[in-house]
Amino acid sequence: MVVIKILCLDQSTKITGYSIFQDKKLISYGILMSDVNEKNPIERMKQMYDKVVNLIDEINPDFVVFEDVQFQNNYATFSQLSQLQGVIMSILFERNIGFKIIQPTAWKSFVGVKGRKRIEQKASAIQIVKNKYKINVSEDEADAIGIGVWAVNNINK
């Protein structure tokens, strides 16, 4: 049996949630944070780059799944998240690690996230993770775990 380790990311320049699934089981989760006092988004992106590189080098995933960027009425945020997505893609290209970018609506629908507003969806994702895994997590961790649940059920490797 081939062991497949999947890293899942809910990325942002401030806080990136991650989850690690091996053989379809959640084995680890957490957050990566840039300096909370850093105002320059490019510097935060560099800090997140370093943290993602360190995580990938530490866990050596077979595959990575991360969330696509959604426009939410703020062009500056959309632009920064799009740039970060490109940064993560370049890390994966350099390491020859396959990846999939998943639409937020796809994984949320698959795991059963409810709510129309962002805050309702975040609370729903946290509750779903609590019910399924009996753990208390942040909204970023909950989203990364939700992406992982989608990934282990939909990625054919």
Short description:
With 157 residues, the protein is an alpha/beta fold. It has helices at residues 41-59, 75-95, 104-111, 118-133, 139-154, and strands spanning 5-10, 15-22, 25-33, 63-67, 98-102.
Find the count of extended strands (DSSP E, 2+ residues).
5
Report the end-to-end length measured between terminal Cα atoms. Answer: 12 Å
User: Going across the major beta sheet, what is the strand order?
Assistant: 3-2-1-4-5
CA gyration radius, whole angstroms: 15 Å
Q: Which architecture per CATH?
A: 2-Layer Sandwich
**What percent strand?**
15-25%
* String of helices and strands: EEEHEHEHHH
What would you say this structure looks like, in words?
With 157 residues, the protein is of the alpha/beta class. It has a single domain, classed as Ribonuclease H-like superfamily/Ribonuclease H (Nucleotidyltransferase, domain 5, 2-Layer Sandwich). Helix content is 51%, strand content 21%. It is built from 5 helices and 5 strands, in the order βββαβαβααα. The protein has helices spanning 41-59, 75-95, 104-111, 118-133, 139-154; strands at residues 5-10, 15-22, 25-33, 63-67, 98-102. Strands 3-2-1-4-5 form a 5-stranded mixed β-sheet, sandwiched between helices. Strand 1 (5-10) and strand 2 form a beta hairpin. Helix 3 (104-111) packs across helix 5 and helix 4 packs across helix 5 (139-154). The longest helix has 21 residues, at 75-95. It is globular. The model has no long low-confidence stretch (mean pLDDT 92).
Topology (elements, then pairings):
Elements (H helix, E strand, L loop, with lengths): L4 E6 L4 E8 L2 E9 L7 H19 L3 E5 L7 H21 L2 E5 L1 H8 L6 H16 L5 H16 L3
Parallel strand pairs: 1-4, 4-5
Antiparallel strand pairs: 1-2, 2-3
